[in-house]
Write a structure and sequence with these properties.
It is built from 3 helices and no strands. With 278 residues, the chain is mainly alpha-helical. Helix 1 runs antiparallel to helix 2 and helix 2 packs antiparallel against helix 3. The longest helix is centred in the N-terminal third of the chain and has 112 residues.
Length: 278
């Protein structure tokens, strides 16, 4: 009887040992899966950060190239206007010298015969014409400068509009990436909650789920704030030139600037993921 009792105890002990080994293997497998999920999330997060950094660098390169192109265009316009001014001035001076030489020659020839007063009157008329031509030339030069300034202002306004649009697109992409990260975190917590075996684990996971929901609320408020700022920040002005024979054109409307208040933070940073990492 005692031997049978001992054999039963040995069998129970063996069963308990096997059960403990099975539970340990399950726990090890669960920990391994959690670790793999964590590493996968870290790799994805690093990939997204790298992609965002590359996009930012590319956008900065584009902005620098656009600024250089605008500067080159303005410089070429200034050079062209200066060359036109110099050419017009040189032509006017050359024409004036030729006319003066021709008049002097005619006056000298006529003086040998008689004193032609009409020739002096003609010289005065020609001199007045040269003066009027110089005034017209100055007016044309001033008009060209004004047109160049308007074109430069239009190019600057267009560049500002493109820059504002790129910033808005980058902000939308950032919000979408953060929302995707929160959704991924929520799915991981749901899976972990389904696999939890103790009440303490479930409570910890529920607390993390609550943090995820709070972060989602913050993200929704940021999106609503961004849309509201975009509606209120609109407005522009138009400028143009009604000259005939010039190259004036209607100015671009100033892009609406949207602003939002300081974002709410969870875990001491602007990222709603705050304390949820890992």
């Amino acid at each position: 009887m005692a031997a049978r009792h001992d054999s039963v105890l040995v069998a129970f002990a063996e069963l308990e040992k096997l059960e403990a080994q099975r539970v340990q293997k399950l726990e090890e497998e669960r920990q391994r899966l959690l670790e793999e999920q964590r590493k996968l999330r870290e790799r994805e997060r690093a990939a997204r950060a790298k992609q965002a950094a590359l996009a930012l660098a590319d956008r900065r390169r584009r902005e620098q190239a656009e600024a250089e192109a605008r500067e080159a265009l303005a410089r070429e316009e200034r050079i062209r206007i200066a060359e036109a001014e110099a050419r017009s001035r040189s032509e006017a001076e050359t024409h004036l010298r030729r006319e003066q030489m021709r008049l002097d020659a005619q006056v000298e020839i006529a003086a040998r015969k008689q004193r032609p007063y009409w020739l002096y009157g003609l010289a005065g008329v020609l001199a007045a014409g040269v003066i009027v031509g110089g005034v017209s030339l100055r007016a044309k030069v001033a008009e060209n400068r004004e047109i160049a300034a308007e074109r430069a202002a239009q190019a600057t306004a267009l560049a500002d509009e493109v820059h504002a649009r790129e910033q808005a697109e980058a902000e939308v992409e950032s919000l979408a990436a953060r929302a995707e990260a929160l959704d991924e975190r929520a799915r991981g917590l749901e899976k972990a909650l389904a696999a939890a075996e103790t009440e303490a684990e479930r409570e910890a996971l529920l607390e993390k789920q609550a943090e995820v929901e709070r972060a989602r609320g913050v993200l929704r408020r940021e999106r609503q704030g961004g849309r509201g700022g975009g509606r209120q920040g609109g407005g522009g002005r138009q400028g143009g030139s009604g000259r005939q024979g010039g190259s004036g054109s209607a100015g671009k409307a100033n892009p609406g600037t949207s602003g939002r208040a300081n974002p709410l933070t969870i875990g001491g940073g602007e990222d709603p993921l705050g304390n949820l990492a890992g």
